[in-house]
Amino acid sequence: xxxxxxxxxxxxxxxxxxxxxxxxxxxxxxxxxxxxxxxxxxxxxxxxxxxxxxxxxxxxxxxxxxxxxxxxxxxxxxxxxxxxxxxxxxxxxxxxxxxxxxxxxxxxxxxxxxxxxxxxxxxxxxxxxxxxxxxxxxxxxxxxxxxxxxxxxxxxxxxxxxxxxxxxxxxxxxxxxxxxxxxxxxxxxxxxxxxxxxxxxxxxxxxxxxxxxxxxxxxxxxxxxxxxxxxxxxxxxxxxxxxxxxxxxxxxxxxxxxxxxxxxxxxxxxxxxxxxxxxxxxxxxxxxxxxxxxxxxxxxxxxxxxxxxxxx
Length: 312
Fold this sequence. Notes:
- This protein is α/β, with parallel strands linked by helices and about 300 residues long.
- It has helices spanning about 45-55, 70-75, 90-105, 110-115, 145, 160-170, 210-220, 225-230, 240-250, 285-295; strands at about 35-40, 60-65, 120-125, 150, 155, 190-195, 230-235, 255-260, 275-280, 305-310.
- The strands form 3 sheets. Strands 3-10-9-6-8-7 form a 6-stranded parallel β-sheet, with helices on both faces. A two-stranded parallel ribbon has the order 1-2.
- The longest helix has 16 residues, at about 90-105.
- It is globular.
- The protein starts with about 30 loop residues before the first strand and ends with a strand.
């Protein structure tokens, strides 16, 4: 007996090349497609992207996103039958429910037990230190872009950056990474930390990630941080494996890490060892906020709590 093996053609294509006639995605416009899958769909809810996807002759379209806020705003979905939203709050609610069952001696299946692997989450608010230099402030508050600016890699305000780092870690004070003197539900135990920073400003226009470079320089010279953490400025040439290798190397040295990112690697990456995010960059994007915080939410044995620190 001979059985014909069905053939499935899977085409991987990027939206970036959609306008080029010879691009892979342009070549599928006239084909009959069973299903098109749009991954990280929150990045493609512009009018142009939506119209491009809709012109593809596909019987099914699957829009995949871990942060589906724009899907609801787009009007494409009614939110009842077309999309399904399972949020961080849902994960934590299921986790609490399963742990309560276990405490009462009830049996739980393997799917339920998966929720117990996730860490608890706490969001804390810290205050910026005050500086005397007026140029570091704008109408809203402290300008982190100005504070973390540099000139050809040399920080413009090293003393003030050190003051910010002092406020993060100095144990005699109510610092953000130790929370001394504060009543909080879970102790903050920074091991591998993600700093979300603005792009910053390089006066020579050589570096587009000036803030990360300024922080990396000052962290290396800070008396408290350099004893406990190895810093890494995540630039465009860094990949997920580079960050995890940096973490593994630091663990062998019995040190933690501070990983400084201006929106780099904050989507679709996995860093199981990270357990703290410090927001030194204000954002009005819910997708950016949760995508960035998601970098530390990966389960790992022994990681009971993750902490998100935002500045008022």
